[in-house]
Design goal:
By secondary structure, the chain is α+β, with helices and mostly antiparallel strands. 31% of the residues lie in helices and 12% in strands. The chain has six helices and six strands. A four-stranded mixed sheet has the order 1-4-6-5, sandwiched between helices. The protein is globular, with a radius of gyration of 18 Å. 21% of the residues are buried. The C terminus is likely disordered.
Length: 209
């Protein structure tokens, strides 16, 4: 969308698209991330860190179409330990460490933009434990940083899925809060919004209907 407006954008750094060159955890990939975002000509960065290990739904049973349930993915965090259970060991502990590293780096980039110049946006599911990270909570209390909730079904998506943005740009916040009366799940959107984990920024509205 930004490129369509005639604004120059860099190629996305994504391991699935660019292989090792976009792998945050490879020496080459990390160097590419640093070079891209420390370039003085780059004024805006958008981060979408890995979210599989951040879901609050982990640990809950999964309902199958036939009515049966199966065990869901292992829970690795909770309210007390949003950075991960301290008793995790082995491969799962390493996965959580990497997940935290990418998330924390995203938050640090937003912090840098807030304290220096330019803009940064972090995108993650609404039910993500990322929003409970200490740095995320600190950022949400800053003036000029917004916790913006939006629902995919209100923007053409086929299912109800809440996402959140943490930008230091008010324009993004208020554009996302536009009225979407055509959403087929409007009543459920309002219900789920009311049940969603509250943002820590006391001035942040949700979707305005």
């Amino acid at each position: 969308a930004v490129a369509a407006r005639g604004i120059a954008v860099t190629a996305p750094l994504d391991r699935l698209m660019t292989g090792v060159a976009g792998d945050f955890f490879s020496p080459m990939g990390f160097a590419n991330f640093g070079a891209a975002f420390n370039d003085p000509s780059v004024a805006w960065e958008h981060w979408g860190p890995e979210c599989k290990l951040m879901s609050r739904a982990r640990g809950r049973p999964i309902w199958l179409p036939n009515g049966r349930t199966i065990a869901g993915p292992q829970a690795v965090r909770n309210k007390e330990f949003p950075l991960g259970y301290p008793w995790l060991r082995g491969k799962m502990a390493e996965r959580v460490r990497k997940s935290n590293s990418m998330a924390q780096h995203s938050l640090e980039r937003l912090k840098w933009r807030v304290q220096n110049w330019g803009f940064c946006v972090i995108e993650h599911p609404l039910n993500s434990w990322l929003w409970e990270f200490p740095l995320a909570r600190w950022l949400q209390e800053l003036p000029g940083v917004y916790f913006t909730v939006w629902w995919n079904c209100c923007y053409g998506g086929a299912r109800i899925k809440g996402s959140a943005l943490l930008p230091n740009l008010s324009l993004i916040h208020f554009l996302r809060c536009r009225r979407r009366v055509s959403c087929p799940f409007l009543r459920l959107c309002l219900l789920f919004t009311s049940l969603a984990p509250p943002p820590h920024h006391h001035t942040t509205p949700f979707l305005l209907y």
